[in-house]
Amino acid sequence: MKTAGKIFKRKIIRIFLALSLLVIGLVIGINFFQSKKKELSAEKFEVKRGTVSQDLVLSGQIKAEEDAKLFFPTSGKLAWIGVKEGDFVRKGQALASLDKTPLAAAYQQALNNIRLYEANLEATYDSLQGKDTTETFAQKATRTSSEVAKDNAYDSLRIAKYNLDNATLIAPFSGIVTYVAHPYPLVNIPVGELQVEIINPETIYFEATADQDEIIKIKKDENVEIVLDSFPDKKIVGKISFVSLTPSIEEQGAVYKIKVKLENKEELKDTVKIGMTGDLRISLAKKENVLYAPSAFIKADNKGKYVHVGSIKNKTYIKTGLEGEEFTEIEEGLKEGEILYD
User: Fold this and answer.
1) Is the pLDDT of residue 193 over 90?
2) 291 near 281, Cβ under 8 Å?
3) Which end of the chain is more exposed for a tag (fewer CB within 10 A), N or C?
4) What are the backbone angles phi and psi of residue 47, rounded to the nearest 5°?
5) 42 CB contacts (<8 Å, ≥6 apart)?
6) Which of 33-42, 113-122, 132-141, 206-215 has the least mean pLDDT?
7) CA 168, CA 82: separation in Å to the nearest integer?
8) pLDDT single digits (tens) 162-172
């Protein structure tokens, strides 16, 4: 019985060892397969020689220097609208008009009031002739009241004339009508409602903002590149035309405005639209004919910076130079043509 028990135990041990070896083999195989799979799926890059640029990238949008939002200074009924969205208009062209009947009546009433209060004031002066030194407080109050009434009537006349003169919207410059609030007349217009917007596409520019650490690196007349979100593969060339001396009041903190004049506007006018967003790229430093690798491929630990060369397991320490957003200069540790893994 003891011999049979020993034989049974040996079989159990052999089975356990076989299972253990099988499990270990499976784990090794799985790890090897996963490692190979990871290496095959890893991104690769061949070390090249070329130009590395260190850039400052700022977000912004397309705007126009000549962008006019037109309002009527008073409420009233829209009598006439002479444009529609998309129309080209010239400077001084009439665009829309309110019904001038009540405005003309208000102006005439203001003229009448001027005549009335002027006559009252002249009568007051007549009654006070020779009383320059004996004028009583009551007489002074009467004279002052007449003078103030005339002055108020004159101010009312100025307001009435202003409202009448501005009852017709006039284009302040040549451009494209981009917005019309009411395409048809005979609607009542409230005060403060935007009626017509005109933009001159010839005056488009790119506006960005920079904080106080970035603004000191930016100079006027510097050549820059712009990449709009709508056209990620197209680079637009421009030149910095304005760098603000004071922070922008629309932003919190020390944030400064930058304007970029776009080159080749004629080529852009049919594609670039007001409000399009993108990035302004300003070159701060540049090196040519140097070895470089993608910045994302370069890692770091307590020993320094390294890359994976030839295999995702092979860690090679390197010395870097100029660091850009996309690529970094490699000063030591790599050769041209070596394959990097990420």
Assistant:
1) yes
2) no
3) N
4) -60, 130
5) 308, 312, 341, 342
6) 33-42
7) 11
8) 999 999 999 99
Residue 122 in tokens: 């002249």
The pTM score is 0.68
pLDDT in tens, 233-243: 888 999 999 99
Are 111 and 202 in contact by the 8 Å Cβ rule? The answer is no
DSSP of 50-93, one letter per residue?
A: EEEEEEEEEEEEEEESSEEEE--SS-EEEEEE---TT-EE-TT-
Number of helices (H) and strands (E) in the chain: give both, helices first.
Answer: 5, 21
Q: Cα separation of 310 and 67, whole Å?
A: 57
70 strand-pairing partners: 196
Q: Residues for the chain: how many in total?
A: 342
Task: Give the tens place of pLDDT for each residue, 18-57.
Answer: 677 666 766 665 555 555 554 455 688 999 999 998 889 9
Q: Which two tokens stand for residue 189?
A: 């217009």
Q: How far is CA 196 from CA 128, 182, 233, 273, in A?
A: 54, 9, 35, 18
Residue 42 has a pLDDT of 65
Dig out the tokens for 299 from the structure.
């890692």
- Token pair 């041990």 in the structure block, residue: 13
- Distance from C-alpha of 96 to C-alpha of 67, rounded to nearest angstrom: 18
